[in-house]
Amino acid sequence: MAIKFNDDFLWGGAIAANQCEGAYLEDGKGLSIQDIMPNGVVGDISDEPIEENLKLIGIDFYHRYKEDIKLFAEMGFKTLRFSIAWSRIFPKGDEQEPNELGLKFYDSVIDECLKYGIEPLVTLSHYETPLHLAKTYDGWRSRKLIGFFENYCRVVFERYKDKVKYWLTFNEINAVIHFPLMGAGIYTPKSKLTKQDVYQAAHHELVASALAVKLAHEIMPEAKVGCMVLGVVNYPMTPNPDDMIASMERDRDLMFFTDVQVRGKYPRYTKKLFRDLGVEIQMEPDDEEILKNTVDFISFSYYMSKCTAKDVSKYERGRGNLTSGVKNPYLKESEWGWQIDPQGLRYICNYFYDRYEKPLFIVENGLGAIDELVEVNGIKTVIDDYRIKYLNDHLVELGKAIDDGVEVMGYTSWGCIDLVSASTAELKKRYGFIYVDRNNDGTGSLERYKKKSFYWYKEVIETNGKILKEE
């Protein structure tokens, strides 16, 4: 089949402030939870920032953004997804007046994108709750954060309303259930939290997300605001009806969040879910009305699929980004044990679109791998054919989803320039088209080098996907 993408398809890449910017205390920035999470989601937190935390310097995007955006423009990016660090705008998170130097930094980043015709796609909260809000209020367990977030959103919407058309509210909002510190800034250890605590925090984020949509539409009538969820396909391990039901239940873990943000209300199945978990969501009188402010599109990350079963103990467990399941014997794995399933992207696109009939935007997809910097004809590069194959195969399946009738706005490859991994806080786990000379021990020049995939993705964009090959 011929792969066809719309002429206005938004090709690009994605980064996050806490994984690339560095400059963690410059120009009035306050601390975020990421500054005391030196080992990613799997490690302990520290009382204060420590030198071993690679995110404190990241890849120094804060000082090198012009150089990096120029490289993105050379690839032909139509869009760049990046996040605003809340603690750059409100260092503690609960102030009334913003930090002007933080606002000016994002003015500069946005202007640099627009200079090259790159549409900014801005995430408002990407796993970086201000540390003060985590320690003082226990993060999103407190309803007070809704007001603080609303104030933050109002400030950035007013500031960038003439420059930014596309917005996302919370990155992978469904992660709060499994990773309450990273997903919701909850400082209390997960082991001490009840299901009531976690789902109540999720409710506060969902209300805040809906308020952000409402504000955006009031301040920027032409703006498009999307939700963002961690997208995972759950295949039943066997045709045993028990495994089918287990798969249905796992799907609802994801769809609960999209149902609320796209349909504007809690779905009927949450009554049983909350009853079984002993959860009773505490709502304010206006909450149900606020939730009716639904998103304009659905964005999601997609890296892998997993299998589900009623009795998972009978099977080998697989590894994953933030979730794991039973290992699928039909799939290969990345170096980090993530199962590679390009067809799963076609499946989840159809699943979302059949359910909601809202435009989709794939805002994270990519292969984390150990890259080797080599010299070819006197030029340093990385021969990353494995990354090219991964992305090619996923984009072919995305093209098939479009051919199926799914409306897709765009695609932003995750970590389009190497950055610090969110799950493991490593630099050796690289996703980018651009190699950054920095290592896990913190050494390196921070110089940028174009990988082989840089030129491949440039050609993908130039031809609007016509060079993609189905194997």
Descriptive account of the structure:
This protein has helices at residues 17-20, 61-75, 86-89, 100-115, 131-137, 144-160, 180-184, 195-219, 241-263, 270-277, 287-290, 342-356, 385-403, 452-462, and strands at 10-14, 79-83, 119-125, 166-170, 224-236, 297-308, 332-333, 339-340, 360-364, 374-376, 379-381, 408-414, 434-436, 448-450. With 471 residues, the chain is of the alpha/beta class. An 8-stranded parallel beta barrel has the order 1-2-3-4-5-6-9-12, surrounded by 4 helices. A two-stranded antiparallel sheet has the order 7-8. The longest helix has 25 residues, at 195-219. The protein is globular, with a radius of gyration of 21 Å. The N and C termini lie close together (11 Å). The model has no long low-confidence stretch (mean pLDDT 95).
- Principal-axes geometry comes out as globular
Question: Largest beta sheet, briefly?
Answer: 8 strands, parallel, barrel
Question: Treating each run of at least 4 consecutive H or I residues as one helix, how many helices?
Answer: 14
Mean pLDDT: 95
* Biggest sheet strand line-up: 1-2-3-4-5-6-9-12
User: What value does the Rg take, in angstroms?
Assistant: 21 Å
Strand % is: 15-25%
Helix-strand string: EHHEHHEHHEHHEHHHEEEHEEEHEEEH
Poorly predicted regions: none
Structural class: alpha/beta
Query: Helicity range of the residues?
Result: 25-40%
What is the strand tally?
A: 14
**Terminal Cα span:** 11 Å
